């Protein structure tokens, strides 16, 4: 069963496939007909979820309370989560200790994506709450988007689009570059990078990587045909620097003014991991002075950026609103994967993709994120 949080019927475009109700357990034994039916687990879906995931939860016997956008009403969110056995979020709801304290029945948090910077894993573990997520669910979508960002920068599409819309055609002012022969450095080559590298190899000259937790002897570099390089060497080597790092204590502010200036003159920066990795004010200064030829950012330190965004209105910058993983196919995969793990936890089964386990819980197959 599904309901909007305010009791209104679910709009037709949010219903998804119609799901048959779960079968009732067989009654057996003396007095079975007098036993109350087990209560449906309540799943609060607090942000947009693909209809395939909502339908999967309903087929699993859950009562789904669908309340996308509820993060803008903190009091309402706390009220709804009080009755929830499971909470499903994207990246806007902050699952912190305060919210968890308001959810005495909560057993599992499902994160519709791979990033975990909006979930307090330590607080969840301490309170006995499992966190599941969808590593790799949008890897193809993000990899294709990175390639599109690189092509847009190479051919100066932001400037060309603005010129075309203005009706002023100065074609010679928009001389672009080809990807052939260029060098691409990837910061944080993980699941997305493993999909991206085969897309890049027929188009570019060479691909190298720096990973803060994996050194030069990691066998995957040879399998992918990429070089591992120290960060100090990768920056001046790369014509394109692709940032796919997660945001954590080690990576926050990693690309500061000094490291950005260490990039090759005329290089282009692509940021599709987490925005807090890059010093945006320093990046804007280097773009204005011409040290860097362009930048494409799909993720920002503050989302959405405030009115003093230093990158806004720069002609050689492509800014998109965190949409790299937003394809219909990726969102369906993620929603189905997370719904399946939410149901596993509610049934007392180990999840396939745990991000956080309750304190003292035994490890499960697949482990927890390792980067």
Secondary structure layout:
Blueprint: E1 2-4, H1 12-15, E2 42-45, H2 51-59, E3 63-66, H3 74-81, E4 86-89, H4 97-101, E5 108-111, H5 121-126, E6 130-132, H6 139-154, H7 157-166, E7 183-187, H8 191-200, E8 206-210, H9 219-224, E9 227-228, H10 231-237, E10 240-243, H11 257-261, E11 268-271, H12 280-289, E12 294-297, E13 317-319, H13 328-346, E14 354-356
Parallel strand pairs: 1-3, 2-3, 2-4, 4-5, 5-6, 7-8, 7-10, 8-9, 10-11, 11-12, 12-13
Antiparallel strand pairs: 6-14
Helix pairs in contact: 2-13, 6-8
Task: Give a short overview.
Helix content is 31%, strand content 14%.
Helix-strand makeup class = alpha/beta
Label the CATH architecture of the largest domain.
3-Layer(aba) Sandwich
Lateral strand order in the biggest sheet = 1-3-2-4-5-6-14
Given the C-alpha coordinates, what overall shape results?
A: globular
* Run of helices and strands: EHEHEHEHEHEHHEHEHEHEHEHEEHE
What level of helicity do the residues show? 25-40%
| E-strand count | 14
Question: What would CATH call the class of the largest domain?
Answer: Alpha Beta
Family: Belongs to the D-isomer specific 2-hydroxyacid dehydrogenase family.
GO molecular function: NAD binding; oxidoreductase activity, acting on the CH-OH group of donors, NAD or NADP as acceptor
Keywords: Oxidoreductase
Region (Disordered): 1-37, 352-371
């Amino acid at each position: 069963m599904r309901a909007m949080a305010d009791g209104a019927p679910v709009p037709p475009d949010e219903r998804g496939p119609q799901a048959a109700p779960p079968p009732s357990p067989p009654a057996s034994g003396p007095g079975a007909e007098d036993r109350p039916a087990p209560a449906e687990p309540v799943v609060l879906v607090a942000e947009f979820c693909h209809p395939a995931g909502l339908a999967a939860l309903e087929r699993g016997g859950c009562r789904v309370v669908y309340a996308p956008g509820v993060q803008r009403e903190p009091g309402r969110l706390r009220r709804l989560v009080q009755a929830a056995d499971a909470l499903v979020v994207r990246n806007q709801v902050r699952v912190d200790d305060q919210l968890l304290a308001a959810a005495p029945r909560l057993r599992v948090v499902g994160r519709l994506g791979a990033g975990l910077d909006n979930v307090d894993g330590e607080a969840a573990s301490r309170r006995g709450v499992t966190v599941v997520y969808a590593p790799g669910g949008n890897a193809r979508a993000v990899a294709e988007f990175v390639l599109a960002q690189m092509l847009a920068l190479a051919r100066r599409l932001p400037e060309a689009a603005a010129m075309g819309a203005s009706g002023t055609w100065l074609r010679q002012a928009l001389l672009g570059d080809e990807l052939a022969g260029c060098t691409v450095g990837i910061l944080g080559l993980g699941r997305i990078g493993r999909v991206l590298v085969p897309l890049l190899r027929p188009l570019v000259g060479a691909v190298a990587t720096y990973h803060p937790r994996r050194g030069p002897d990691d066998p995957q570099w040879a399998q992918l045909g990429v070089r591992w390089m120290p960060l100090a060497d990768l920056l001046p080597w790369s014509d394109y620097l692709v940032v796919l790092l997660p945001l954590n204590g080690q990576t926050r502010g990693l690309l500061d003014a000094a490291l950005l200036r260490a990039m090759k003159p005329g290089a282009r920066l692509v940021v599709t991991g987490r925005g807090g990795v890059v010093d945006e004010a320093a990046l804007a200064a280097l773009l204005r002075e011409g040290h860097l030829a362009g930048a494409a950012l799909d993720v920002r330190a503050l989302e959405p950026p405030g009115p003093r965004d230093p990158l806004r209105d720069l002609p050689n910058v492509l800014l998109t609103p965190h949409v790299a993983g937003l394809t219909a196919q990726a969102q369906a995969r993620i929603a189905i994967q997370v719904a399946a793990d939410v149901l596993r936890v509610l049934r007392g089964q180990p999840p396939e993709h745990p991000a956080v386990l309750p304190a003292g819980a035994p490890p499960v197959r697949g482990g927890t994120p390792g980067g």
